[in-house]
Specification:
The chain has 253 residues and is an alpha/beta fold. The chain is built from eight helices and seven strands; from the N terminus they run βαβαβαβαβαβααβα. The mean pLDDT is 87.
Length: 253
């Protein structure tokens, strides 16, 4: 049961897509199941990140045939961080969700996350009983452990592709390439509270992962140092007092 304060919540679910033609129809079915139960007004925004397969054609078909679905298509492949930023920039709801289209996490688990949005600026999943290869599991564990040690954010599974963010906080996130790995820490940097919840995880049923051992390890390690540098120089302030006068009109004081 949702807290009554969530009655004012509206949600945009961002779905970055890069060459996922084998997943999109089944993803739409799974997302439809969530939309049928969604306790808040919800829309889905696909971000086509320069796909070279038939993903864009399938996205057009889904959006033209189903209420609640929209899309933007980037001019070329920019990467996940840019796709998420583009989605955030185009969202106009109070909250922004994020999920991958490969269905390794379930849209239905947004129901669990929505129960916790009141009092938190981000709610993020923790992939329980991960159905990944040994290499993916161990590389993710190393990267997560190194990140927690270096920045002390306390986030168990920062890469979990199931999140809901307060849109006001999300739109203030300082973006850089690789920032998708630090979204919870970037919310915390603004003073936001992050809630973590166990969610389901499944094997990829079609397509292929866009990440391999190199970019699962080297990218996060390198970006951690960039985040530490940025955090030390992050500008954060509050207004203690303010007085605003009327503007001068036509030169008359």
């Amino acid at each position: 049961m949702l807290h009554r304060n969530t009655e004012r919540i509206t949600l945009t679910v961002l779905v970055p897509v890069f060459n996922e033609e084998g997943c999109l129809q089944r993803f739409r079915e799974a997302m439809d199941a969530f939309l049928a139960q969604a306790p808040v007004p919800t829309q889905v925004l696909f971000i086509n990140d320069g796909s070279t397969d038939s993903s864009l054609a399938l996205i057009r078909q889904i959006c033209q045939g189903s209420a609640g679905y929209s899309y933007i298509s980037l001019d070329r492949n920019h990467g996940l961080s840019t796709a998420i930023k583009a989605g955030i920039d185009h969202s106009q709801t109070t909250h922004i969700g994020y999920i991958d289209s490969d269905l390794q996490t379930s849209p239905l688990d947004f129901l669990l996350l929505l129960e916790q949005v009141t009092g938190h600026e981000m709610v993020i999943g923790i992939r329980a009983k991960r159905k990944d290869t040994f290499i993916k599991k161990i590389s993710s564990r190393i990267a997560n452990g190194f990140r927690r040690y270096m920045i002390n954010d306390g986030i168990v599974d920062t890469g979990c592709p199931l999140k809901i963010m307060d849109a006001a906080f999300a739109k203030r996130v300082p973006f850089f390439d690789g920032m998708h790995r630090f979204l919870p820490a970037l919310i915390q940097l603004q003073g936001g509270k992050v809630k973590q919840l166990p969610v389901q995880h499944f094997e990829r049923f079609a397509g292929y992962s866009k990440y391999h051992l190199f970019n699962r390890l080297w990218g996060p390690l390198n970006d951690t140092f960039a985040f530490r540098w940025m955090r030390k120089r992050y500008i954060k302030y509050g207004i203690a007092e303010e007085f605003e006068n009327q503007p001068v009109a036509n030169g008359h004081l």
